[in-house]
Design brief:
The structure is a homodimer. Chain A is mainly α. Helix content of chain A is about 70%, strand content about 10%. The first copy, chain A, is built from 7 helices and 3 strands. A 3-stranded antiparallel β-sheet of chain A has the order 1-3-2. In chain A, a hairpin with a 7-residue loop joins strand 2 and strand 3. The longest helix of chain A is centred in the last third of the chain and has 40 residues. Chain A is elongated. Chain B binds a DNA duplex through helix 2 and helix 3.
Chain lengths: ~180, ~180
DNA sequence: TGCGCCATGTAACATGTTACATGATTAT
DNA sequence: ATAATCATGTAACATGTTACATGGCGCA
């Protein structure tokens, strides 16, 4: 359902093809919502049936024909309704935490190794966010207000990962102290 | 795939029925990994086929027969392999952020309303975590080391939500300042 | 010569949710 | 009375991933 409204939202700014939408997703939303082209084409076809979109086909000789989608009045209404409705907290699905829950079977160096690997991945993700942040906002935002909103969203990613990193470092520390205490 | 190993992990501590596993999930892992009974029964059947589990059927007259699952040697090996393998960062799927990204179509009070609703939900979730935390750990953990790991996992939930809450409050602030500036 | 971009799509599979179904027992 | 707990399952659907498929153009 979310994908549907995300697509509506982008098509509300301008008419686009499925391919364009795919690129926009990987240029912007990718890090807090991703979608493959399979999913996008499928969802667009459904929305067309539901009358939320209209389609214009552009004949091309060299490449496959383009299908440009635009939002309809009904689509606009549906988007507005969805936007105004409060969202529940997202369900958490955190594989790494599942692993740590069951990790008592492993020896301490292996656990610490898992945690350190996780830290490294967090650090490189953070770096990515920090460099992309301004770049993306400047490129796509169309007003001060929109820029503020987009910056906030990206900021959310950054603080979340910083927090996660702090947690992981603290956990490594605790693990080390536990095994030192055992050794004595 | 995660569900599979989560189930293996619990069955490694003690043999259990599908129903027991369901209850354990909702008593412990629920807030960072949830599963319905449909999924659990289905996955157990698959794992049995794959030889990761063995099954003992207990005849009952009053209630439906119990099927008690135990982990096999192969299951144990599979679990160890999975536990030692580092996990990628979890894909982020954050509906609320999608909504905020597209929220520029809404007027400021509506946006602030969305954010405040989100804050409230975060606060009540946090309260839940903080009260459940010790309780769960004390009840299920079988050693100091396990207790440490489980506490860390629950702590992760707490710091994550605290961080999210701070972000949301800051965003409300920023939104207010923006609209004040506009009014002037 | 081979790779990546453009632009679409399908098929098969994995995962997750909701609703339907049974039927006895125990607690309020 | 009625709701909840025990204990299993199926059917249908929604969502998400991977691999397969086409075919011209431009670049190294």
């Amino acid at each position: 359902v979310s994908l549907k409204y995300a697509l509506l939202g982008f098509l509300d700014m301008q008419p686009l093809t499925g391919y364009d939408l795919m690129k926009m997703f990987s240029a912007t939303v990718k890090y807090y919502w991703s979608a493959t082209h399979t999913q996008i084409y499928r969802t667009l076809a459904q929305m067309l049936e539901q009358g939320l979109l209209s389609q214009e086909i552009i004949q091309q000789t060299k490449n496959p024909n383009k299908k440009i989608y635009s939002i309809t009045e009904r689509g606009n209404q549906a988007l507005l309704d969805w936007l105004g409705t409060p969202e529940d907290l997202p369900p958490v699905r955190h594989k790494f935490l599942v692993k740590i829950t069951l990790a008592n079977k492993l020896d301490t160096p292996t656990i610490i190794n898992l945690l350190e690997n996780y830290c490294e991945k967090l650090r490189s993700r953070l770096e990515l966010y920090r460099t992309k942040n301004r770049e993306i906002t400047e490129k796509y935002a169309r007003s001060e207000r929109e820029k503020f909103l987009w910056n906030s969203v990206l900021e959310n990613g950054i603080v979340t990962y910083e927090c996660e990193l702090k947690w992981a470092e603290k956990t490594i520390d605790g693990m080390r102290r536990l095994s030192d205490a055992d050794a004595r």
